[in-house]
Write a structure and sequence with these properties.
With 167 residues, this protein is of the alpha/beta class. The protein has one domain. 34% of the residues lie in helices and 26% in strands.
């Protein structure tokens, strides 16, 4: 039998590799454009460093939505919630676009998922824990986190999944 800690580390490595692969696929700039863009490094959950385009001004959140939950109505029980929030960002200066995701949970929702998945622990920098499902609180926390990791102002200009997806 594989020890739980070894299995958890293997799952975490696979998830990080998947996220990095999706990020790489989402960038469609040419090599010439890549050479002209400045880059800075951000922390990535202690696993290593990830490169993201530097920005002169601010980033704009153009669209946001949950994987399973209707963002406007929310869950039936606002105290029992766990879902993945996707946030589309656009850098107006460089024209680059990309998607971020943050897992959002209440304590009861996180406890439920941990029991269902048989997890003994959870760790990550992309986990936002809230007291109850409240869209304003969730968006404020997510935007604060994005401003911290990208070290720039992030503006919320989109309006949920009905907003136009990024090109």
């Amino acid at each position: 039998m594989i020890p739980a800690n070894t299995l958890w580390v293997a799952v975490l490595v696979i998830v990080v590799m998947y996220v990095v692969a999706r990020w790489v696929r989402s960038h469609t700039t040419t090599e010439e454009e890549q050479e002209q863009l400045p880059y800075y490094r951000i922390r990535s959950g202690g696993i290593g460093m990830a490169e993201h385009p530097a920005t002169k001004g601010s980033l704009a959140v153009s669209r946001y939505y949950f994987r399973q939950t209707d963002i406007e109505t929310g869950p039936a029980d606002t105290a029992d919630f766990y879902d993945e929030l996707f946030i589309d960002l656009r850098d107006a200066d460089s024209g680059q676009v990309w998607e971020n995701s943050i897992h959002v949970a209440t304590l009861r929702g996180l406890d439920r998922v941990m029991a269902e998945e048989h997890w003994d622990s959870v760790i990550g920098t992309e986990l936002l824990i809230v007291r109850r499902y409240d869209l304003d609180t969730i968006l404020h926390g997510a935007v604060d986190h994005l401003q911290e990791i990208y070290e720039t102002q992030v503006q919320l200009v989109g309006h949920g999944p009905a907003a136009e997806p990024m090109a």
